[in-house]
């Protein structure tokens, strides 16, 4: 698949970005899901990490750790927030909070139960929309990442830099599959940082297979349920994995709730 396949109007979107002089929450730039990764010199590749997308914002001497939905993570991950303390004011770092299992692979279930595995939690930084008061969103990705690597990383030694690769796409996919990892993210080297947009300048490809989970309960809401509680079997023991909210639009929530007997549904699902 050639490098021009995913070209979009993002080249001209610089004019719609209002200059940011004060750091605050911004929506994360999003990845478009694809079934085949783009190839060519215009693209670079990163590992797809199975964690929580997060923004670290340093302002007035304080660090705020935001989820992509603007929830504050600082109280939940105080050690991660503290790792950004030496950044200069007016800086924003984009990345992923990840938990590693015993084999060194990202584990979402371990992240969900992080309190018992606090030492395995880390933040992988992959972009920097703002540095020391300078808005970098209109700079190309490769320049933003170079500034992140050379300027910011030395000030936050507990944070890991998410490496990118320029390998052949098929070789990259083969390596990720052989390691049992989740997938890859391909990004145009010249892409701007466009908050909230999913325009094809960044794409993600899932490689690893799904896992079967048991839906063993739910958290209630006034009408039906807020989230389903899923787990997996380790031998004969059912282990909690996660609360799942994504993908349930209101109509689907009502249908699932009624179809599976209201508050007593338990079933298996491959995710």
Relevant terms:
alpha+beta, 2 domains, about 15% helix, disordered N terminus, globular, about 270 residues, D-amino Acid Aminotransferase, Chain A, domain 1
What is the fold's blueprint, element by element?
Elements: E1 32-33, E2 43-48, E3 52-59, E4 62-67, H1 78-82, E5 91-99, H2 108-112, E6 121-131, E7 134-135, H3 141-152, E8 160-161, H4 169-178, E9 183-188, E10 202-206, E11 212-220, E12 225-234, E13 237-244, H5 250-259, E14 267-270
Parallel strand pairs: 1-10, 6-8
Antiparallel strand pairs: 2-9, 3-4, 3-5, 5-6, 6-7, 9-10, 11-12, 11-14, 12-13
Describe the protein.
With 271 residues, the chain is of the alpha+beta class. The chain is 15% helix and 32% strand. It has five helices and 14 strands. Strands 3, 4, 5, 6, 7 and 8 form a six-stranded mixed β-sheet that branches. A four-stranded mixed β-sheet has the order 1-10-9-2, with helices on one face. β6 and β7 form a beta hairpin. The longest helix is centred in the middle third of the chain and has 12 residues. It is globular. The protein starts with 31 loop residues before the first strand and ends with a strand. The N terminus and C terminus are likely disordered.
Query: What is the name of the CATH superfamily of the largest domain?
Result: DNA ligase/mRNA capping enzyme
Low confidence ranges? 1-17, 264-271
- Taking the alpha carbons of the first and last residues, their distance comes to 28 Å
Our count of domains comes out at 2
Structural class: alpha+beta
CATH topology of the largest domain: D-amino Acid Aminotransferase, Chain A, domain 1
Which CATH class of the largest domain applies here? Alpha Beta
Tally of alpha and pi helices: 5
Order of helices and strands: EEEEHEHEEHEHEEEEEHE
What is the CATH-assigned architecture of the largest domain? 2-Layer Sandwich
């Amino acid at each position: 698949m050639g490098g021009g396949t995913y070209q979009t109007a993002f080249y001209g979107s610089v004019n719609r970005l209002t200059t940011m002089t004060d750091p605050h929450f911004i929506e994360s730039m999003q990845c478009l899901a694809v079934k085949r990764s783009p190839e060519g010199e215009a693209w670079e590749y990163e590992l797809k990490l199975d964690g929580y997308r997060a923004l670290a914002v340093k302002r007035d001497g304080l660090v705020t750790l935001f989820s992509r939905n603007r929830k504050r993570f600082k109280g939940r991950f105080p050690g991660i927030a503290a790792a950004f303390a030496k950044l200069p004011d007016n800086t924003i770092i984009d990345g992923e909070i990840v938990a590693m299992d015993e084999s060194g692979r990202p584990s979402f279930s371990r992240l969900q139960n992080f309190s018992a595995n606090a030492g395995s939690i880390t933040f992988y930084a992959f972009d920097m929309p703002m540095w020391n008061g300078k808005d970098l969103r209109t700079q190309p990705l490769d320049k933003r990442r170079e500034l992140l690597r050379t300027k910011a990383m030395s000030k936050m030694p507990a944070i890991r830099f998410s490496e990118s690769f320029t390998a052949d796409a098929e070789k990259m996919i083969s390596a990720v599959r052989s390691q049992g990892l989740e997938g890859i993210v391909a990004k145009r080297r010249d892409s701007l940082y466009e908050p909230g947009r999913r325009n094809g300048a960044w794409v993600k490809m899932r490689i690893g297979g799904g896992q079967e989970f048991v839906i063993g309960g739910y958290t209630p809401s006034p009408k039906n349920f807020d989230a389903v509680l899923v787990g997996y079997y380790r031998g004969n023991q059912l282990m909690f994995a996660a609360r799942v909210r994504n993908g349930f639009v209101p109509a689907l929530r009502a249908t699932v709730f009624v179809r599976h007997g209201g508050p007593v549904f338990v079933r298996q699902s491959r995710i």
